[in-house]
Amino acid sequence: MSLDNFFKIQERGSTVKTEIVGGATTFLTMAYIIVVNPAILSFAHIPQGPSTVATILTAVFGCLFMAFYANRPLAVAPYMGENAFIAFGLGALGISWQLRLGAVFVSGIIFAIFACLKIRPWLANSISPSMKHSFGAGIGMFLFLIGLYETGIVTSGATGLPAAALSTAEGVLRAPDVPLKLGNLHNPTVLLSIFGFILIVTLMQRKVRGAMLIGIAVTAIIGTLLGHGSAPQAVMAMPFVPPYDLAPIFLKLDIPGVFQLSFLPILLTLFLMSFLDTLGTLVGVGSIGGMLDEEGNFKDIEKPMIVDATSCIFSALVGSSTSGAFIESAAGIKEGARTGLATLVVAILFGVCIFFIPLIEPLQHLTYAYAPALMAVGLLTINSIKKIDMDDITEAAPALATIAMMVFSYNIANGLTAGLVLYSVIKICTGRFRELNSGTLTLSSLCLIYFLFGIPH
Q: CB within 8 A of 382, min separation 6: which ones?
């Protein structure tokens, strides 16, 4: 069977050449994940060498499954936002990375069951558009804040001292330090970070393919030449042998520990984040590639959602965070990609990268190089805030509370759960309870359990 017949290339108005170009374009726009994902997960104490291999394997597996099962030009890799939740959001709980991966695995099983039973589409229709957009905007601002903090552009202003230490000579309690303050803008690495962000944004505005990857690389090269980094020790290396052996994290997840009441909000958050990321990606790229029906719904949505769930399970097994369809796939779709052949090209290119990890690895240790990319991704996601219905206070209030709680409590779970609870409460208090359906009330009830019996922080 030819490529054309298998992938239905002509039937969808494309060509083999167009699919290859589209796949290469998508890869260039999302290849930064190889650098950024292991760097973020290192804050959860997951070793970077094995984590880089796991990131690449997850992308290869997800893209191959998407190509041959769903036949869609949607590349798959570990999600931004979810990795930050695993590394930073769960950091305050003091749980092991094995337990965090166990939560990713169990949530993936739940995704798969819900996708097969078509529950995820039902839940999608239960969340108002304003709330969906607030989730995206909140996660975007959270990523932007992480980038600002990791680069040192902003830093902590709290002293951590007891109230007694803040007293003046007259015994009057002075004003405490602000939670955040401007960092040292004379620090060379901070200046490099600012340069990196400006470069990435400039390249993105000029629609340069691989803008984030180019920005990371150029900033790293300049920083290394100035003495703030080290050159690669090698160009190529064999994977699956030290220091790129997968054994330290492969199948090391703690599944039994997930089955406790206190873990319910974590599973709920992972579910909502992945679910909304996938839904937003499918609708966004579907509108570009003509994959939506007359009512604006993604055609045959269960297949990519099953791919999303299966890749999530796989990523936990190999030692990475929640994965799914990437919004960067839109770059390849804009080039004309319409089939899974483009996604197959992405899988092949990711597979090649597994032999060049030594070339990539130094970038993972240069916060000033990769953190600006977090800010750029956050910038793109924050854009959804303009789609919140600000004229309806019953929509705007819970939406803005969602964003504020994510950012100011430094926890995505707090924002998601608080927003969904407030949504139902405000609708009921304003006499508009008829706008709520069973799905909305189910989600709100689950979120309320988080605050009543969980471990909010």
A: 137, 140, 141, 144
Residue range of the domain that includes 255: 3-155+178-388
pLDDT at 316 over 60: yes
What is the phi/psi pair of residue 413, to 5°? -60, -40
* Burial class (CB within 10 angstroms; exposed 0-12, middle 13-18, buried 19+) of 177: middle
What total of structural domains would you count in the chain?
1
Does a structural domain hold residue 133?
Answer: yes
Q: Are 283 and 333 in contact (CB under 8 A)?
A: no
Distance CA 312, CA 105 (A): 7
Q: Measuring CA to CA, which residue among 416, 415, 432 is closest to residue 424?
A: 432
**Six-digit token pair at 199?**
């470069």
- Residue appearing with tokens 């297949």: 303
Q: What percent of the chain is modeled with pLDDT above 90? A: 24
Give the orientation angle of helix 264-289 with respect to helix 129-151, to 10 degrees.
100
Residues 6+ apart with CB under 8 A from 377: 80, 140, 143, 212
Task: For tokens 């040292």, name the residue.
Answer: 184
Q: Two tokens at 397? A: 């209030």
